[in-house]
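ok new one. same drill as before - structure tokens go in, u give me an amino acid for every spot. 207 of them this time. try not to just spam alanines like last time pls lmao
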């Protein structure tokens, strides 16, 4: 185990060392990683509840089990990129080649939360999301892994609920929202973005 420093950041969440450590300051053992992940989820839950009490964004009432079960999906989740995925890059490259200029992952405050759409046209008040088929439950390709703990069923449904809440909140704030699945043909996706850009509306292929 690498040398680490003691910290109060994980107070109440003990690793096998008999005390608490921060996973991101040096130690990379499995016990410290799990302790760090538990604390991170607790912090996110407290922030989510604080937004709800303050009258912020709608949140799913589904309770997430404490940790994901070991699986290929769990490994993918831990290494998952929040931006610059393959489908996003292909869409950005195609749009840029056609003269489009946009902002990437521009932070927008809406409904008490900060969202970062994949593409933002600030002057046109248009935002574009490229949603992964697995993470956002595509009706055509979305498949939940076998999981007796119920973690993935809750996790994916919360993603869907968040998508609905974010879309509604952005539209209330005057934004036009276009959501595309990652499996969309690139020419179709570009056509949808250009139609929304030209016509002032956001058509979508999502079912």
């Amino acid at each position: 185990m690498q040398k680490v420093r003691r910290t109060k950041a994980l107070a109440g969440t003990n690793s096998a060392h008999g005390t608490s450590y921060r996973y991101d300051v040096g130690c990379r053992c499995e016990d410290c990683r799990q302790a760090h992940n538990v604390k991170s989820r607790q912090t996110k839950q407290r922030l989510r509840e604080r937004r709800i009490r303050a009258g912020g964004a709608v949140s799913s009432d589904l309770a997430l089990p404490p940790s994901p079960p070991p699986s290929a999906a769990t490994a993918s989740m831990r290494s998952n990129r929040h931006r610059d995925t393959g489908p996003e890059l292909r869409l950005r490259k195609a749009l840029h080649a056609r003269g489009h200029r946009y902002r990437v992952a521009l932070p927008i405050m809406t409904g008490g939360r900060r969202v970062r759409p994949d593409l933002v046209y600030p002057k046109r008040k248009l935002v574009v999301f490229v949603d992964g088929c697995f993470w956002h439950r595509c009706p055509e390709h979305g498949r939940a892994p076998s999981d007796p703990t119920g973690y993935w069923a809750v996790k994916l449904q919360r993603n869907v609920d968040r998508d609905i809440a974010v879309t509604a909140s952005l539209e209330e704030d005057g934004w036009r929202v276009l959501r595309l699945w990652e499996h969309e043909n690139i020419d179709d996706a570009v056509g949808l973005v250009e139609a929304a850009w030209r016509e002032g509306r956001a058509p979508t292929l999502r079912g």
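Residues 1-15, 18-25 have pLDDT under 50 and may be disordered. and btw The first strand starts at residue 103 and ends at 104.
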